[in-house]
Amino acid sequence: MQARAAPVRGMAATRAQVSSSGLPMLTRPCVGARLSIISPSFSQQMGIKLGSSAAPLAAKQFSARPQRVVAQAAASPAPVAPATPPFKWGANMKDLVTAIGVAAIIWYLPAPLGVSAKAWHLLAVFVGTIVGIITTPLPLGAVAMLGLGAAMLTKVLTFAEAFSAFSSEIPWLIAIAYWLAGGFIKSGLGNRIAYAIVSAFGKTSLGLTYSLVFAEALLSPAIPSVAARAGGIFFPLAKALCLACGSDPEKGTQRKLGSFLMLTCFQTSCVSSAMFITAMAANPLAVNLAASAGINISWGTWALAGLVPGIVCLSLVPLILYNLYPPEAKDTPDAPLAAKKELEKLGALSLNEKITAGAFAVTVALWIFGSAVGVNAVTAAIVGLTILLVTNVITWKECLANGPAWDTLTWFAALIAMAAYLNKFGFIPWFSDSVVKVVSSMGLEWQAAFGIVVGLYFYSHYFFASGAAHIGAMYTAFLAVAIACGTPPMLAAVALGQLSNLMGCLTTYGIGSAPPYFGAGYVPQGEWLKFGFILSIFYLTVWLGVGGVWWKFIGLW
């Protein structure tokens, strides 16, 4: 028994020391040859041979360890809580307050006689939204949503009215054009065509630009939608060309080529749309309204009238912007050779390139001939998009991730809706009638009176997000006052119809070709608006000056 007592006394000591350190202890005495409060596996890890004379020493060592850990923990500094990041506004509050302030001032001004309170309040919201789009306190889509929210909150528009334009063709056509452009670039077809153009015309950036400008003008009579033509064909090509030349706004190299190229392609798309009845979807509306006034405009008459001023503008606009807004890379003598080498590296057309080429061919064919079988421009674009999606050239996830497409769809549709209801609520008809009365009362010669009519008609486009909406709201009234002032009827009808395209040059939202080119991010909004105004003066000078002489020659007056 004495031989077995020592271990018990040793284990008792162990139990006492362990319990004094705060570890669990047995509440009942244990008997047996080997008494343990530690599991056998854990004791082996600690080097303790239970039931041996070394147990008391091991227990002392074991009981001391928690005390050292506690002491070390007490000596170490307490963790410092991370600093709370300072609050940061999600909007530029100065610009946002400015937009709200402008809207509030107009809202509380008394409405003119003949304008309903609802129309006046919608004008306040619309102007405030336009100020927000110009100053961009938030991304454009967010500004537009705030505008729609304000219109609904103040009960100026219902939800159905505010979002009515999201079922309109043009915003969706522009969004689909972005997705088609993604396939054009991702497949490699865009690079291939861009290198081919560079190899042929790439010695100067001006040569590259002219090649796109006149190619677009040649196709314009066959594709009756400027949004489809510019957004679906030439915008993807222009973007691929910019990227191939190392001009990318995400890398800060937009001024190398892209800023000049994108702005020029947009401006000249307004010119080509003016030259032919079938170059812009709203042109037939002007022709129909003229016919209702007893003026019949044929396709040939319109095209002949636009031929000379159109060619002058297409030839000079690239040169004007080349001097006012020049690209950083002007002369590129080695570019054609480099482009040919890149073409050789690309080798034969890949499967995805062939699929993309086929999808675009089908889409363009439907844009040209689809009206004969009842297929509109959006349906044609969806056919092309479907081909690219089904064949995995692009994925729907990539379409969803295309932020500029959704942003453009949002702000463009919002402006179309507000502008449409300005007309429905009576503000635009009141404005037109007021202009007619003022000009008619001046007693001017017809040339001066027509110049005033044209100027007011042209610059009132700042209030419109659609050429069709502008024509539908104001063309008939302004045509009537021009004729009443002595302007030859055919001259007045054709000039107002063609200028209904050119006035799209003013803003980022005034014509279907503006959103894709602007949304690419190559040209800041301030620059876009500035050059739009400068070129508007040039267009009016050419169309009424050179065009007036040409129209005299061909017998329009």
Q: What can you tell me about this protein's structure?
A:
It is globular, with a radius of gyration of 37 Å. It has 25 helices and no strands. The N terminus is likely disordered. Helix 14 packs across helix 25 and helix 21 runs antiparallel to helix 22. By secondary structure, the chain is mostly helical.
Report the structural category: mainly alpha
Euclidean distance between termini CA atoms: 137 Å
Q: How many whole angstroms does the radius of gyration measure?
A: 37 Å
Summed over residues and divided by their number, the pLDDT gives a mean of: 82
Overall body shape? globular
Order of helices and strands: HHHHHHHHHHHHHHHHHHHHHHHHH
- Which bin fits the share of residues in helices? 55-70%
Instruction: Give the number of DSSP strands.
Output: 0
- Major beta-sheet overview: none
Provide the low-confidence segments as ranges. Answer: 1-60
List the total number of helices: 25
Give the strand content.
under 5%
A few lines on this structure:
This protein is an all-alpha fold and 557 residues long. It is built from 25 helices and no strands.
Task: Itemize the secondary structure elements and their pairings.
Layout (H helix, E strand, L loop, with lengths): L1 H19 L19 H7 L8 H21 L17 H16 L8 H19 L4 H14 L5 H4 L6 H18 L2 H13 L3 H15 L6 H19 L13 H18 L7 H10 L6 H26 L10 H12 L4 H19 L7 H14 L5 H5 L2 H22 L2 H14 L5 H14 L7 H18 L4 H14 L11 H6 L5 H30 L3
